[in-house]
Amino acid sequence: MRKLPRGIIISCQLEPGDPVQDVSFIVNMARSADYAGAVAVRTNNADHVRAVKDSVSIPVIGLVKDRNYQAFITPTFEHARDVIKAGADFVAIDCTRSERPVQLKTLFEEIRSSFPDVGIIADIADEADAELVSALRPDFIATTLCGYTPYTLGCSLPNIELVRGLSRKMSIPIIAEGGYTTLEEVQNAFQNGAYAVVIGTAITRPWITIKKFVDLFYKKFN
Ligand SMILES: CC(=O)N[C@H](C=O)[C@@H](O)[C@H](O)[C@H](O)COP(=O)(O)O
């Protein structure tokens, strides 16, 4: 298995439409993750991967989101190559049953033959996705896309049942990802077999956290 210790992974990504849009935010979040003892940082686009890689000592998981495709996380070899050349130690790939431009088998083979030292994280949405991709032996399977495919839309997050089912069935380590916001949920994921847990929005999109407090005020005291 490519090196990724057990623990907490922080996803630091800028989302279109968010009030924060500068790379220094991503870098400072990644530094904070490293300082606090997180085991890896997950970030998108080559320029952010490069900036984060230059600033932290922990592994970087790179991806590219391309909404031209239904399978939108690192859908082609070119996307993967860009983040790997920028310094990604792992690349996250959309391994759902959504429509894709290149067959998964081909994509895995291309990445493995060009970059044998780079780990592959299979982002899946349900157990059927995980079973299908397990034949390609990804280094990790992450529950990232549960709730984001037509066949998992509306599924409540975090999906700890999915983590539990996968951890029992699969010999590949499972990364719990998607919708983790409380210590209790993270603890629950580890207790149910997660190898690592990714936390993004709850930490790295502060306007969403702030809005919860603001909404409470307007709802109850105004
Ligand atoms: C679905 C999708 O595009 N997920 C992305 C994957 O890289 C990120 O936007 C998420 O922030 C990440 O998965 C962590 O999840 P959460 O932000 O819920 O803690």
From TrEMBL:
Keywords: Carbohydrate metabolism, Isomerase. GO terms for biological process: N-acetylmannosamine catabolic process; N-acetylneuraminate catabolic process. Pathway: Amino-sugar metabolism; N-acetylneuraminate degradation; D-fructose 6-phosphate from N-acetylneuraminate: step 3/5. InterPro entries: Aldolase_TIM, NanE, RibuloseP-bd_barrel. Pfam families: NanE. It catalyses: an N-acyl-D-glucosamine 6-phosphate = an N-acyl-D-mannosamine 6-phosphate. This is N-acylglucosamine-6-phosphate 2-epimerase. It comes from Pseudothermotoga lettingae (strain ATCC BAA-301 / DSM 14385 / NBRC 107922 / TMO) (Thermotoga lettingae).
